[in-house]
Every structure is written in structure tokens, then in C-alpha cells.
Batch of 4 targets.
Target 1
Amino acid sequence: MAESAACPAFQLGRPRYDQGSFLGRLRHFIDIIDPSTLFVSEKRLKESIKLLDDYNHGTLPPGVSDLQLWEAQKIKQAIIHPDTGEKIFMPFRMSGYVPFGTPIVIGLLLPNQTVVSTIIWQWLNQSHNACVNYANRNATKPTPTSKFLQGYVGAVTSAVSIAVGLNVLIQKANKLSPATRMIIQRLVPFPAVGCDSCRATADCCCPSTALCAWLPSPSPCLWPSVCSHRCLRYSISCLMNFLCC
């Protein structure tokens, strides 16, 4: 009851939380990555879509609260692509990034990795990122498939090169003690992922303004664009790396 009383008036297509404050933007992002939306049934999804359609056409049944409308919008935005109107494959939804990405992050941080295992885990990580990026792309602006492929190849090449190169250098550093060498090797995923983040941000061509939890945006994205997905994705990735280390 308390949450319902504090719930703001529903606005279709607008964020539920105040985007002028850090806390509001943070709560907005938490809503986006909420894994509970992965377990929404097909029946509830259709009910949520119908509820929003009824609101849009002014035929909303009596007794529907603002909280119900916000929840319906959250479910629809988590599952349905706003441009194509199609369901996003579960592992590539933003709400699925943490549960489906965590095993890959753990693999990246496994000790005593060989060159082959390093390549495999970096490739899996970048492949997952590329799939999430494509599934949540800004479909209002057609982008050639070749551009996505170029970005994917560049991401895999840069991440693998940095990770393998640093591992080889560390193994050849005879002056380092085994304990120091192990600690440094555990940190190798950071520059590999961070460098690709910088490369991806530089390559971004999305026309809309990315919404950041740290800085307010004069024109926030109502739906997280490919830009804000990328920013959010790497923020989550770095956080998981930090927690696992």
C-alpha cells in the first residue's frame, strides 16, 4: 500500500523515476536489468500489452492503479523490442545480461588459464556482448549488417590480443613472485574489457542521447538505445569483475 501511495502518476513511454537525480536514474537502470522479468509468462505479457493499449485508447477499466500500469510498461519494455515489436531472445535481453553473463565473467577470471582458454572465454564474452548489442539495436535507423560484423570482429580481436598479450608478458616476468603473478593475471580481464568499451563507444553512431546513471541527460532515452545499452552493459561487466575478484 505504501509503495502504491508513493507511486507517481503513470505516463506512457516515460521513465517511472525522476531522471533529474542520481537515485532516480539508478532505480531506472535497476528496473531495466531486473531478472524477474525473465520469468513473465506469455499470458501476463499479453495482459500487460493490452493494459497499455487500453490506456492509450482511453478504454482503461476502472480500478487500475498507476502501479499496475508502471509494472505493465516495465514488462513490455523488458521483453518487446520497441521498434520491431518482436520479443527479444531471453539471453540477449538487458534483464538477462547479469544471469547469462555471470558464467562468462567467472570463466574470464579462472586462475592458471592457458592461451586457448583465454581466447575461448574472451570470444564468448564478446560474442555475448555482440548479440545483446544487436538484439537491442536502434531499429529505426537501418544499419548494414557489415557494420555489426566489423564491430564484432574488432571487439574480439582487441579483447583477445590484449588478454593473451598481457598473460604472455606476465608469464615471462621472472622477477614476479607466484602470488603476485596470480593477482596480476586476475586483473587481465579489466583492460581487455575496458579497451573494448572505449572502442565501442567511439564507434557508436546512435543519434539519441545515451542516458547515464552518473550524469543527467537533457534528452533522456525513453527506451535505452544501443548507446546506453553499451554503457550499462560495460558498467555491469566491470562491477561483476570487481565483485568476483
Target 2
Amino acid sequence: MVRGKALARCGLVLLSLWLCIQSVPISVDKTKEKAHEEELGPPQSAETGLHYDRYLREVIEYLEKDPHFKEKLKNANMDDIKQGKLSKELDFVHHNFRTKLDELKREEMSRLRMLLKAKNDIQEGNGRTVDHQALLRQFEHLNHMNPDTFEVEDLDRLIKSATKDLENFDKDRHDEFRRYEMMKEHERRERLKNMNEEDRKKEEQHYEEMKKKHADHPKVNHPGSVDQLKEVWQEADGLDPEYFDPKTFFKMHDSNGDGFFDETELEALFTKELEKVYNPENEEDDMVEMEEERLRMREHVMNEVDTNKDRLVSMSEFMAATKKEEFFEKDEWETLDQNSFYTEEELKEYEQHLANEETDINKKSVELQKQREELEKKQEELNAQRMGLQQAVEEMERLKAQSTKAEVKRKYHIVKIVV
């Protein structure tokens, strides 16, 4: 199957890029109103990383299977999307698909309720104040006031939420990587604190050797430059760099043939450059850093080539970029080891944050231990009370038995006297 070219051209560029929606050419007799049952099969597409990923992908894919909506999607532009015009076309979607969308929404509502309950329980269990507004933001991608049916407002909210969230996706990845790097340095320093002076010197020396070894690599070409692309042309494609042709290169690496480079196709072009710096077999090379490097390279190319900012590179954009001065950039690409992601002060703030968290956890642990001891004490008291009660019952039973036995003897003597 081939990803729908219409999606790449329409205003829903973020969704088309991240969802990697695949569409099948549909030949439909429009005089027949009934939709084919096989078109209601489970959708398949790439993950977006959003917490409502599955719901988003399934909704978009089911909508694209409707002939009317698919045609409107093909002709839509960004303004239509932002103004909600595309969402209004939901009213004309076939009943079979609308019914399926209703089911998807009910499933999503059920999932969100379970998610919020779990988060609420965790926060209350940790003794933290529950941020109800933050919890409610989990519902922004749908109209939770109507939990049963999928309506125009639901599609409008879904598109707007996905667009906003995906625009922040790269920023979140950078922030996560920054925290990763600070944690790595924090843990290294903590290990040094627990070493004697001799071991500490050895560890510091080894650390510097690994840094130097990692930095010793061949020249990394500027991503998207003629030298970088020629290297791919020669080493990956097996062609003579003297006969490098940008248009042929684009067609060869447009893997799905839709006339665009999406972010995945762009990132694939950087593999040769990344292999110069990173090797999973080497102790000094961090594969998490390699993925951050790949992201930086892709962002660099997108900033220079993607002129309409739709997160896709068309053939015309690519060809225009080959005529710019930047395309002939000869300077070496500055890799991660040549950049600092945080200051010493920021690291100290992060370590303080970790220390505060540890203090809170220890405090909570002490409180829980105290509560446990109190519960155990109460349990012991209850057990003692239960044992005392049991002994009292047994004593009453014994006295009752003795009283009954004495009464029988008394009556026996009375009968004997009478007789």
C-alpha cells in the first residue's frame, strides 16, 4: 500500500507526516450506499507517541476510507483545517463509518476514565495535591460532555490537539535528552564520590580517554549539503559522485514514491554520517546521543529546505535548495560532543530537584513505615481483644455447663426424695 499523496498535499500535514497513513485506491459505485465490510478492518499505521495515539490513528484511517471524506481531504488546505471546514464534512460520512467512530470514542472515553482514576490514586497515595485541571486536559482531544457519539466537534478537537501536540513533539524530545544527559553526569559524579582517591583518578582518566576517542572520527558533512548527499549517492547507492543528479537522487530516496521526503525518509539519509561518529560496539559511543544527533540533523535540513513549513520536503523545495549557497557548505557539522546542553548551574538545579524528590520519597517512606507500625500495633490490640473475648466466651460456656450440670443433679435429688 502507498501512503495517500492527498494527505501530503492537504493542510493536515502534521497528521499525514506522523501518522504515516496508508490508503488503498478505492473504486466505488456511488449509486450504492452500502459500504464494504472489508473496509471496516482494523487500521494499521505508525505510532505518533501521543497518549491518544491509537484513537487518533483509527479515527483518521476510518475517515479516509469513506469516499466522500477522502475526496474532501484531497482538496482541503490549511485554512480549511483551521477553520473547521473539513470537520463539518463528517456529517456526510457513511453511516457504517459513523457507527464505528462512535464505538472508537466510547472506547477512548473508557480508557481515559481508567487512566485518570489511576493517576488520581497515585497522586493521592503519594500525598500530593491532585491537579484536576491537568487531569482534565487529558480530554482535550474530544468532547467529553458527549461520551457516546462522535460528532463534528470531536473531529475538530482531535485535529487541533494533534496539530498542537505534534508541533511540540521535537521540543519534548530535546528536553528529555537534556534530562538524560544531566542524569548521566549526576550519576557519574556520585560514583566518583564513593571512590577512594586512587580509583577516582583512574576513573577520571578513563572518562577523558573515552571522550577523546569518541571525538576522534572522520569529518561529518553538513546534513543536506552536496558533499553529504554525494556520499550517500556513492556509498549507499553505488553511483559515481561525478554524475550526481539531485532530481534522480530525490526519486531514488523517496521510498514510497509520493513525491515528498517525510521526516523518516530524511533521517534515513543521515545514516552514513552518523556511522562515522557512533558504533554500538564501542564503549565511548552512546546510542541515545546518536538519535538526538539524527533529530538535530533532520531539523537543520527542514529549517533550510522546508520553505512552506509543512514538515514535508517536495521535489520543488529540494531542487530549489540545491541552488542555494548553503547546499555547497564545506564546514564540518558540529556534533553533540562539541556542544553543551546545560550549564553547571542548571546541573546543580537538577541535582537539587533530584535531592528534593529523594527527600520527599524518604519522608513519605517514613510516614508509611509509621503508619504500618501503627496498623500493626492496632492489629495486635485487636488480636488481644479477640483473644480476651474468646477466653470470656469459653469461660461463660464452662460456667454455663457447670450450672447446667449442678441443676441436673439438684433435680435428680428432688425426684429421688419424692420417689
Target 3
Amino acid sequence: MEKSTIWKFFDECLDDYTLLVPSVAVGNVSQLACDLLISSLSMVKIGSVYTTAQIPVIGYDPYNLKSENLSTSCEIYKSDTKKICILQIRSPLIYKYAKQFLEEVIETFNKKNIKDVIILTSSYAHEKKHILTSSFRRRFCIASIQNMP
């Protein structure tokens, strides 16, 4: 299977980092949570991703309005002090190409020796009852970034 994604890393070292991946879901909650982390931790952009699996988006740097750099639909940020890395996804995946893209995400970050992966998502309140009565379980974690290793 031919790769449909171009990964451009400016910094290669991600050994033992935790990767956060937002899903495009209700209210963009997970993307906004990642934006908050990137901004409040002054995370550094370490890569850009171009993939046919996403609707292309380009705009101003959302974290530095005085910057002359542009922001795209998929970028990678890291915090050395917290040992976290974020694959910030700003547009939905195209269903036809999503599986291949996600396989490439796994392959790419496995090669980078990522320790853990956390996928962030959100749902409608009325779905909670359905989830609680099914075999699927969701886990709620509230943790302070200051307490992360």
C-alpha cells in the first residue's frame, strides 16, 4: 500500500514521550484541549503533516499572532519539560483514507519510541446512558499538568 502522508519533522527526539491525539468530535472539545495545552505549556512545533486523508486547511499561527509562520491542518508539538507530544488535527479525516492515515500515524510514532498514546474525544450528554449500558466503557481522567512527570 502506497503511503499517502508526508511527515516533516524538525526535531526527531520523542523517546518516552506521551502522544496526545484529538479526535474531531462534538464541539471540537479535544482539539480545544490540545490548543490549551500547546498554548499554556508554550509547546514547540516540531513537525507538519500533509495527508490526502484530511481536508487541507491553512491559516495564521494560532499561538502567536505576530508570527509570520502558517499553520496547517495537521501539526506536531512537544513539551520537553512534560514529555508530551501532541498531534494536533484541525480538520476532519476523509473516511475513504482515514484507516490508512491512522495506520501511518501508528507506524510513524512507533518508530519515534512513543511511550503512551492518549486519544481525546467528546460526546453528547444523551450518549452517556447508552455507553453506560453497553460493553463499551469510557474512563474519565482529571489530572493536573503540573503533576505530570
Target 4
Amino acid sequence: MSVVTSGLSKDQQKKLHSLLGHVKLHLLYKASVHGFTAAAFHAHCDRQGPTVITAYNATGFVFGAYTSKDYTQCQEGISDERAFLYSISAGEDKPLRVGGISGQCAFTDVSTGPNYGALVFLNEDKPQFLSNPGTGFVFQAAAMHGEDLALTEFEVYRVEGLGDLLAKPWRNIQWTAERRQQSMKAIRSYQSCIKTVHQARVLLVGPVGAGKSSFFNSINSAFRGNMTSQAIAGTAGKSVTTQFRTYTIKAGKGGEAVPLILCDTMGLEENADAGLDIEDLVNIYKGHVKDRYQFSPSAPLLESAPGYKKHVTLNDRIHCVVYVMDTCKVSLLTQKMLDKFAAIRKKTNQLGIPQILLMTKVDEACPLVAEDLKNVYRSVYIQRKARELSESLGIPLSCVLPVKNYSEELELDQDTDILLFTAVEQMLNYADSFFENQDIEDPEATDQLELYRSNSYQQPVLAERTEHNVV
């Protein structure tokens, strides 16, 4: 799968946002990747709601058009009072904004490239455009595009309003040093209710680039007291993780192990023959996959293979599954990826394994959260994305947890640690549910399990399972 990234510089993004307001841009189409054709444009951009075009030329102009309407190829003129053309050039401090001529259509919704009258993009399915100032919009050609009609790049973004801050957070979090210390202490002193199980095993599952390995590194850093990078993380289009890895977390350099093992896997990809195989996932659930097993793209792990562990105990099994999703890409989940998640959820439910969903990169998804992480449960946008994930993946909203991984920081941050520790506490709560359900799921094993239960067991008080207020 090709990596599709924005061609806008930070300054260009800032100027474009000054025209669009408090919005999030989702890159739908990039002509250098998808093709400079009308068919490719419509395949990626039809029925996407409000969109903005960004066209680039060799003169250094970034220009295009915004519409609040859908592209549907209805072959009719579309009226849109909110539509406008714009231009951003390096020599100007402010972007040029051109509104439509009153009473005229904003664009003609045809099967060719986007046709705004004054600007007709992807003309003849080539990296070029037509310029007709006065047709629907009035501008000076030199100011709009420098009279350079060849395109070096052409992109389309969906424009999604972010909303403001809720008057009351939809979850209550104490953002204090005491809260951080209490959470860390509760996690370090965790004990399962089964005497022979000393560490909860949690499996991280998610698409390529969602932040699974970065989540482990962040948790490890928070407990270690400094930034670490034990798990390989990156931004490649293919999964950086190609092995099954089990990671133990140490409380401080050379310190004792935290009673939690985080297991990392290959990233999920939408195609059936790419990324983590569901049969491999089931083998991981059941404890049959050895640490450092190298995943094969051609076939799942066989019982006869060296990486297969035949004799397993409850210690080897997965006690909680955590789905990891990039908040910035929630709206871009394809049906193929949703179908893959549904198949995984079905297998996971059949094995009775509790599941949690982590929303990563919340600071990148919402500027209000980037300004202050304490806004994460007051952000209308983050709450909306949490609900979308809950509905599309069939996971209760109470199991959806926003987090921020460490990515570019050199120092730890109290608020980041609190969100991370809150997520870990919920994982341990859900692992407890798995242990408690063992008696119910396998009545014949009750007597045997009771032998393993600790008579001196006293569960430390973890955070209560998150309540959610629907606003």
C-alpha cells in the first residue's frame, strides 16, 4: 500500500486553515499516487461531503476550490453560497480568497475533472487545468496561479468541522501528580486472582502505523523514568513489526518487572493476503506462538513449525486484546478493513477474551487537545471519533480510550502518563474479567483452577472501569 501524505507545508496548512476555520483535513486523493485522471478523482472524492482542492504548480502557487457540497456526477450545475476559490503564494502573507458571482453555479458536477468554470482541473485527464476568470468567479490569473497552467501535484481533502469544547467532560480524570503516582503504584502491585499467573498478557492489534509499538515504548518510558525505544516503531507504509514480540516492562532502570506483558504483532492490512493473518492471531490468543516468531506473508504458523509452542498454560494465553487505532484515520477506514476487524472480533469473542480500543494520536487529530491534553475528554471532535469507532467496530463506548503516545518529546509529561496509566489500569481490570470467567467457560476445570487461586490474594484498588456520560 503506497504511503499517501500531504504536500502542504506547515505554513501553507496554516494559511489554508485561516480560510476554512476550525476544521480537520483528511487527505482523500493525491494525483501523483492515484493518477491524474477524472476517474481516479471521482473514485476517491465522490460523496465525501465538504472538500477542498489543493493544486500545485512549478511557479510555487498552491490554489484550488472549496465546496460544502458533494461531488455526485449528476451532470448539473451546483449552487453553493459557501464555495470559494483561493490561492496561497510564498510572496504573500495572506491567502487570496475569491467568492462566487451571485446567482451563478459554483461548479458543474460532471464526470470529468472538477469544473469550477473559472478553474477546470485535470483537463483531458492530464496534469493541467484551464483558467477562465469571470466564469463563476472573478480573479486576476497572475494572482491566482501565476499563469502557469501545468500541475506538479493535485490533492483533495475532506473538510470536517472540529466543534468546540464541551462544558463538562464526558469522562472525569484527575490531572494531578497524586493521580499519576496512585495509578503507577496500583499497576505495579497488581496480582491476578489465579496464583500461577503472575503477569497479565495483553495483545496489541491494529492497522499499520496506528501506534502499537509506540504505545509500548511510551508505557515503558513512563515506568522507566526516561525515553526508551525498545520496540521498533516507524511510519513506513508496510508493517515495521514483522515478528511476534512479548515485552516486559521494568519499573526503573534494572528495576523489578511490572505484572504486565505487552505483546506486539504485525500491523493489519486491508487485503486478505497482506499483514497479520487471522489464523496466526488465533494461535497467539491460545499461546502457541513463541516470542520472536517471524510472521510469514504466505501462510499462517503450522503446528510442525519451529515457532509453534505445543504445550501451553494459562500464562501463555492472551488475557486481554487491545485494538489500536489512529484517531486521525477513523473516517478513512475502508470497508475491507472494517470487515477484517469484524472477523477478528468474532474470533476473539468466541475465545472469551475481553477487548479494549485505544485511540492514539489524539493530539494530532484535534488542535484543542494539542494545546492542552486535559481537553481530551472535553473535545467535541474526540468524543465524535470515539462514538464512530464504537459504532463501526461494535465495541462499547466505555471500552474506547483516547491516549497520546510519546513521539517527539525528550522529557516525560504528567498528563500523557496519566492517560497511558489509565489505559493500562483498564487492561488489568479486563484481564481480571478473563480470569474470573475461566470457571464459567470451563466448568470441568473449576476444581483445578481453585487449586491455583491464592488464599492470600488481595486485589489492589485499580481505577474503576470507566463510566461514560453520553452528551
